[in-house]
């Protein structure tokens, strides 16, 4: 996926570095969850929230080695989108009302479009495996997002 954006290219390079360290990957995912909880009420973000949550679960499953059926480029794109999302200085500054998250949402939407098939495969795997493994049928990541939505 090419965006032509220097900020996106910097995020991609950072993502490749982050993916080499599971702890850094966990931290960037946690940062994304925290930011998502702060912007959950924006209508732009609400439209992509479900895919965003699936991406977070897929990355967590990947770094915990539960789900490894992901092409390297897909995981890099996913982390790149998250890095772009949590980076404060991107194309449109996030503190600008109504416009601040527009570029973040645009990048996330483009990435979701690009990796949609892999996200669908992950969700199918998750529905088969995670529900069987958890007595309540809910994963820790889903609990994080329920907390975000209730908070």
From TrEMBL:
Cellular localization per UniProt: Endomembrane system
InterPro entries according to UniProt: DUF1232
GO CC term (a single one): endomembrane system
Keyword Cell inner membrane: no
Residue stretches making up the DUF1232 domain: 75-109
Record's signal peptide: none
Transmembrane regions: 70-89
First-listed, main subcellular location of the protein, grouped into a coarse class: membrane
Protein's name in the database: DUF1232 domain-containing protein
Keywords: Membrane, Transmembrane, Transmembrane helix
Mode of membrane association: Multi-pass membrane protein
Domain of life: Bacteria
């Amino acid at each position: 996926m090419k965006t032509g954006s220097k900020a996106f290219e910097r995020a991609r390079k950072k993502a490749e570095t982050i993916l080499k360290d599971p702890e850094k990957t966990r931290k960037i995912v946690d940062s994304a969850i925290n930011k998502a909880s702060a912007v959950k009420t924006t209508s732009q973000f609400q439209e992509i929230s479900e895919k965003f949550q699936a991406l977070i679960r897929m990355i967590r499953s990947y770094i915990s080695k539960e789900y490894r059926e992901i092409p390297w480029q897909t995981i890099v794109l996913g982390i790149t989108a998250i890095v772009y999302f949590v980076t404060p200085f991107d194309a449109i500054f996030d503190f600008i009302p109504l416009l601040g998250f527009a570029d973040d949402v645009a990048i996330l939407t483009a990435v979701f479009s690009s990796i949609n098939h892999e996200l669908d495969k992950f969700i199918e795997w998750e529905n088969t495996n995670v529900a069987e493994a958890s007595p309540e049928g809910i994963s820790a990541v889903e609990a994080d997002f329920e907390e975000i939505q209730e908070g």
